[in-house]
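B., you asked whether I could sanity-check this one before it goes into the benchmark set. Here's the sequence:
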Amino acid sequence: MTRRTFVTSTAAASAALTISACTGSSALLSDSEPVAGRLTAGRLVMIDLPGPDLDAESVARIKRYGVTGVCLFGRNIQSEAQLRGLCESLRIVMGPDALIGIDQEGGGVIRTKTLPYPPSAMSLGAGNDAEMARQVGAATARGLKSMGVNWNFAPVLDVNNNASNPVIGDRSYGQDPELVARMGLAWSEGSKSEGVATCVKHFPGHGDTLVDSHYGLPSVDKTMDELMALELLPFQRAAQADVPCVMTSHIVFPALDPDRPATLSRPILTGLLREQFGFDGVICTDAMDMQAISGRYGRGEAALMALDAGADLVMAIAHGNGAAQDETLQIVEEALASGRISKRDAQAKANRLSDLAARFPVEVDAYSAAQRSADADLMERAWSAGLTTVGDAQPIGAGQPFTLVAARAAAGGGASDAGVTGSELVGKLSEAFDLRVALFDPGDPLGTIGEVERVHRPGTPIVIATTQRRRLGEPLTQLAQQLNPVLHLCLWNPYSALDVPAPALVSFGFRPEALDAVVAWLKGDKAATGTLPIELSV
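And here's what the prediction gave me:
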């Protein structure tokens, strides 16, 4: 495999200047002094960028504060060549300690749109094949490595056992902590084997919450024994399994700390994770712009609280808002200068981050057409292996007529992309079946009754498809009770199977590979061999 390491050299700088010339940052890059070895506020703070280019303001911020970590989002990615150039420019300005992160979990949480789509964690959990999970982790890393990304904020080790969880769901491998640990750690090993660091999340566990911490402050009120048997088990295994990083959650666990959420809690981050579990890798916070933190504590003060609690890296994610990032960077800089953060403690944090970058340097591995094709085949097989039936679900048969009832749109939210729209689903299914279609507003499923009556052909089956991240609940149940569908295509949130009283095919996701597997099953060409990794109970 051909590998090219980004280095701060005349040739590399020249290439980066060409890449960045349109941004106005070339002059700043040309005299950039990498921050390696210097103890700066930016060593302890990760930022994000406003757009697809390394803009002059961001370059100045990186240099001013000595930032060595940047998290990428969909707005930063236009093409593989562009992303490769952006990562090279970041590597030049940040130096050898550069950490370029991304959320590439699989399923609904994927930032790139040109690489093969990895299955959701729950799809892999349904397949229950740890070697497949390892291979998917490796293939995911190969795609990222080919563009210069060296850190993936995955896998999720949350144990999802709450049917009403608004943010985790298919991002979890399931509700059995042993399954979650086995599959998640296999996925992590695969990624590491291809040179991309992983970060397990969201410690101590976000699986049994009713509140999305993007919008509020959740609480998990369980005893220590209950937490150790469920939420904490995968993280304890991870701490002992050479996982490079653990990400904190913005959740209150009264049994662990009645006063502060985990991200800000010294008893949780230092007492439990460092001392009791023996974790010696990097601890990073979840995004500090989430309302669970920023809406209650303020960005700057919360950053100091997190660092004091034991975090090594604060994610000052602000949708590219420079002023909000500066607020965090400035207060951390002042705390270093005043001694509120001890130099010794700060240096230990910086050393852990430097060790992470040294172990997983920003490099580009060639991604051959043959390897990309093999990885695409792998992703398709992995998605297919997760297909699971609930009840006596039966295929329709190729070319057969049926009426499809589905939502016009499928909102994402939180960390997830938007799902497949009704028209996109129709486009996929109409290639293989004789369709009649009735699309509904997700806020008013019952409003489509008249349209179903108009288009439906008596004597043909009705199929309801759910494509939402969130469950639609009672209105969807009422719709199904009136329509009496023969089948429910559960194409995202598996707990939506509770809302439709009909046999179901569960795909745990809506990506093209998942929909291809669904179509093959509907035609009768593919079996559904997955096992439901959750209990379908309210």
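One thing to flag: The longest strand covers residues 401-407. Otherwise nothing jumped out at me.
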